[in-house]
Amino acid sequence: MKNRVTMAQLSLLLMLVMMGGKFLSLPALLAAELGHDSWLAVAMTFLWDGVCLAFLMAAVRKNSLPIDKVLYGTLTPVGGRAVLAVFLVLFLCRIIVLLDSCYKTFAVTFDVNTSWILFVLPVMAVAAFAVHRGFNSVARTAQLLFAPIVLSIIAILLYPATQTQFRALAPVAEVGWKNIAEQAFLKSFWFSDFVFIYFVMDGIGKGRSAPVFISFSVGAAITVLMNAVFVALFGSLAQHVDIAMSKIGLFAVSVSGVGRWDWLTFTVWLTSVILKIVVFTFCAYTCVEKICGKTFSKVNPFVMAGITAATLLPMFLSVTQLLDTFVRWCLVPFAVVQYVLPLFMPLLVRAANKKYPQPKEQYGKS
């Protein structure tokens, strides 16, 4: 089965996906609303992410069915397809936002300008190849890239973190906990990176899930630290700094005086963003398969063409408009699949296993 993954692979991939998109445009968006308290909204959202992940992993340990059987067997085929449709729209929106952030990153950091089509098509070609090879190939790629990516993040963050005056974050919760909680919900679209687990849950090895929670905790801590360093360094200007990781890297270079070493580390880190796009493309493709009730033996060109066509939307509509209108309008249905569905997954899996009894396979411990 080409979509089987071990717990160790899952844990490494989760950590990379978590840090693959939150170091770009999100810090500036939060800083515009919360100022130096933006890191608290990130921490608050991660706390709820952790709760949802715990429920989802509890379901995974008892599960032997693909997500469509779990949903169709408990929520009816109509309800199950509605949930998968929400997932599909969520993944497409996240892919578009990630591609837009990558596009801006290359323009800002490397002073490279190209057309949107010429930027998107190679990325989607890589994603199509990954879909063809199966999720296991994506997980093995994450294993291979894990050490270089994490080391690059440490290299970018370490020196600025030691030079940051964290007293600039005081007073804590100056804007009020109500405003922080509200922004945490309004920006929840950017979080719940664990949702890709739904689409490989029947192929996850039955080993201990402790590595998953360790990776999640480390990834969350690094992301919160990055946000705290960012707003402490740039203060009131943080809301105007579009690509946070790029500017933090430039700060490290400007004060260290050893040349533009940040290009290398930043390029290595960007592979985690591409990896995240690939993971979400796999999930979007799987959503279409499940909704249509078909499993394609090879990559279906029409499905991939449809997903790629959706990524061309920024040619006609700015991503800012997408976030301010469509995503905000979809925030509640997105939140249902991101933060409500995981809480009920253990019950849904238990009911589905009774409806579709079958021997559980042990894929190997990790």
TrEMBL record:
Primary residence: membrane
Transmembrane portions of the chain: 12-32, 38-60, 81-99, 114-132, 144-162, 184-201, 213-237, 266-287, 299-320, 326-349
Domain of life: Bacteria
CC terms in the record's Gene Ontology section: membrane
Pfam families hit by this protein: Spore_permease
Keyword terms of this UniProt record: Germination, Membrane, Transmembrane, Transmembrane helix, Transport
Family in the record: Belongs to the amino acid-polyamine-organocation (APC) superfamily. Spore germination protein (SGP) (TC 2.A.3.9) family.
Organism per entry: Candidatus Fimimonas merdipullorum
Keyword Nucleotide-binding among record annotations: no
Protein name: GerAB/ArcD/ProY family transporter
InterPro entries: Spore_GerAB
GO biological-process terms attached to the record: spore germination
